[in-house]
TrEMBL record:
Keyword vocabulary terms for this entry: Transcription, Transcription regulation
Protein name, UniProt field: DeoR/GlpR transcriptional regulator
Molecular function per GO: DNA-binding transcription factor activity
Keyword Transcription regulation among UniProt keywords: yes
Taxonomic lineage of the native organism: Bacteria, Bacillati, Actinomycetota, Actinomycetes, Streptosporangiales
Domain of life the protein comes from: Bacteria
């Protein structure tokens, strides 16, 4: 094996570990080689037990470390902003909405700062920071136990607060999402709260950029209700989206300008 091949394969494993799913086309463009070369790389890495292939991409077989919110803020920035723009356009005057913790829902809170006659409840410090000076937005913090890594509140106090409220719309984030099992997170505490959040509104949106589709980095899952909407960016290919549409999930892919593709 040449040095160039070895270096490229090591870089592919590192990329999969730090940013998750990457398509063959993305890897081909990134490393300046053909798609067939990338497929040979992936096949060998899979045979070596270093990677597992998913919907058109790769993920590490080793335990996937949970990224901090600080790390996530720098990932897929444009995609998250586009998703947030689309989501904000769904929110109407006088509504009460619930925002999960996370970087994409934080971007949504940023888009809602100039709203009037709006109530936003949240479990995330990012959303609170975005809305702290939004004088015309009523802000409710669910409270609970702070997870420093994700900068979100979880636990029985947050769950009890949820029982006292219902919402016009709920916007959830995720470490990963699949059509079969729903939202994947690092801890059962997080998934328990997300299920409770999804149960407090008929309109449930899961906001995730394309790299999170079809991944299984952890072993804790939040089942989604029968009807929910997956909102992702236009970089998601058909192989990643088709399992969701086949399962009856409403799927929205958003262009960089925040319009539906």
């Amino acid at each position: 094996m040449s040095r160039g091949t070895r270096v490229r394969r090591e870089a592919i494993v590192q990329l999969a570990t730090t940013t998750g799913l990457a398509s063959v086309e993305e890897l081909s463009a990134r490393f300046g080689v053909t798609a067939s070369t990338i497929r040979r790389d992936l096949a060998q890495l899979e045979a070596d037990g270093q990677l597992a292939r998913t919907y058109g991409g790769v993920m590490p077989l080793v335990a996937h470390p949970e990224a901090s919110l600080r790390q996530r803020l720098g990932e897929a920035f444009e995609a998250k902003r586009a998703i947030a723009t689309w989501a904000a356009a769904r929110v109407g005057t006088g509504e009460t909405v619930l925002l999960d913790s996370g970087s994409t829902t934080g971007a949504l809170a940023h888009e809602l700062r100039e709203s009037r006659d709006l109530t936003v409840a949240t479990t995330g410090l990012t959303a609170l920071q975005e809305l702290v000076n939004a004088e015309h937005v009523r802000v409710e913090c669910l409270g609970g136990t702070l997870r420093h890594l994700s900068q979100g509140f979880v636990g029985p106090l947050a769950e009890e607060a949820l029982r006292r409220m219902t919402f016009d719309r709920v916007f959830l984030g995720a470490d990963a999402v699949t059509a079969e099992d729903g939202i994947c997170e690092a801890t059962l505490e997080q998934t328990r709260l997300k299920e409770a959040m999804a149960g407090r509104s008929d309109r449930v949106y899961v906001l995730v950029h394309a790299a999170k589709l079809g991944r299984r980095p952890f072993h804790a899952w939040a089942r989604m209700p029968e009807r929910w909407t997956l909102v992702t960016d236009s970089g998601a290919d058909e192989s990643a989206l088709s399992p969701f549409t086949a399962a009856g999930v409403e799927v929205v892919a958003v262009n960089p300008d925040g319009t539906e593709s």
